[in-house]
Write a structure and sequence with these properties.
This protein has six helices and no strands. The protein is mainly alpha-helical.
Amino acid sequence: MALDSVTVRMLTRHRERHERLHARARSRWRDSGYVFTTADRAPLRPDYLTERFRQLVAASGLPPVRLHDLRHGAATLALAAHTDLKVVQAMLEHASIVLTADTYVSVLPVVAQQAAQETARLVLTAAASLKGELPA
């Protein structure tokens, strides 16, 4: 999976913190193999992550959103950034591009507006070029 440079930098810093903790703990260190763990290096429980996310959303004052909804949002934002649908399909690890398009992709108003502007530009450009060719 491809990651942007900011995310890579954040994950690198996280790994460096863990390495410093490991160096201080020496033989007491228990390497779980997980990137994110509890203080005693046990893997985070999925229900903990779901509940913690719910708490953070509630505290933010934003409308309710489920953790899984971030997947839909990521696909939508990737498409708004003009990422090819086939790339988004691969990001989501879908077997079918139809599933990606039908299930996870919604059109943001700004994307719809850009599409309308571009379509009108193409039509108006074609009409202008034809104008000179049409009989009077």
